[in-house]
Specification:
The structure is a single chain. The protein is α+β, with helices and mostly antiparallel strands. The protein contains five helices and 14 strands. The longest helix has 16 residues. The protein binds 2-oxoglutaric acid (AKG). 2-oxoglutaric acid binds next to strand 4, strand 7, strand 11 and strand 12.
Length: about 270
């Protein structure tokens, strides 16, 4: 039962805030899999890899996506750990279908911030979704992701490319812009936590979030595992989503559920090949 892992207070807090931290959700054997999986994936990057920092600035910010089918450690974390069960419980859903994994690595002394954004406007999803951000390395509070609590209840906001701020998804003017949160931080209920490997921040696909650069001598490797609630429905987009699921619109129509081999159930647990 999902309720055994996440109590009613946590479910209520997540519904209200759209973000919650769960400490020690990975078991001791799983903690090291996050870093091993990320390093394996980035040693042979996929065609989706993105370098999201200016080469003239210090450090580097690298992202890659959808590595669960070729990196066993990521597959185990996505489907075999308690993360999927907690995702279902927090979404108040009987199931959690795996959507994708997203690797986000800031090398030592990275100045590049992750700008404020919501995730769902980049996707092909209507309905409920949740991410679990799993650090492979200790993350001090001042370098950890930040979340505007309650923002998941507000409107969808304009997605833009991180570096050049281009509107590559929804057309200009079609969604509300993200407010300038940095200009008046005290006006927002911003949440941030120091993290250890094994912890996870769970956040709604619609929670506005950002992350500072990483001004430390160590790396900040993180894996976001993303899950869909039972009400999630496929939306056919006329643009390439991020990540893109090539050919998916040949199989799933607008409004279909994500019951498809690309999105296996993580909870209840099933055998995933
Ligand atoms: O790791 C980061 O810098 C930001 C995380 C993020 O945007 C996400 O996981 O959706």
């Amino acid at each position: 039962m999902p309720g055994q892992l996440v109590d009613d207070d946590a479910i209520e807090a997540f519904a209200r805030d759209g973000v919650i931290v769960l400490r020690g959700i990975l078991n001791p054997d799983e903690v090291s899999l996050v870093g091993v999986g990320i390093d394996k994936a980035l040693a042979a990057p996929s065609k989706r890899v993105k370098h999201v920092s200016d080469p003239d600035e210090s450090g580097a910010f690298v992202e890659d996506f959808l590595r669960w089918s070729d990196v066993d450690e990521i597959k185990h974390l996505a489907f075999g750990s308690r993360v999927g069960e907690a995702a279902a419980a927090l979404m108040d859903s009987m199931s959690a279908r795996f959507y994708h994994d997203h690797l986000l690595v800031k090398e030592a002394n990275t100045s590049q911030v992750t700008p404020w954004h919501q995730d769902q406007p980049y996707y092909n999803v209507e309905g409920t979704g949740i991410s679990a951000w799993l650090p492979a390395d200790p993350v001090p509070k001042d370098a950890s992701p930040e979340f505007w609590a309650g923002s998941h209840l507000g409107p969808w906001r304009m997605p833009r490319s991180f570096l050049d701020k281009e509107a590559n998804w929804f057309p200009e003017g079609s969604l509300a812009e993200i407010p300038n949160i940095e200009a008046d931080r005290s006006a927002y209920d911003i949440r941030q936590w120091a993290l250890q490997p094994g912890d996870a921040i769970f956040f709604s696909f619609l929670a506005l979030h950002s992350a500072p650069g990483f001004p430390y001598e160590e790396r900040r490797r993180a894996l976001s595992l993303r899950y869909l609630g039972s009400d999630a429905r496929h939306v056919v987009r006329s643009w390439a989503t991020s990540p893109s699921f090539e050919g998916i619109a040949d199989d799933l129509a607008d409004g279909d559920s994500f019951d498809h081999p690309s999105f296996p159930l993580a909870w209840p647990r099933t055998e995933v090949s």
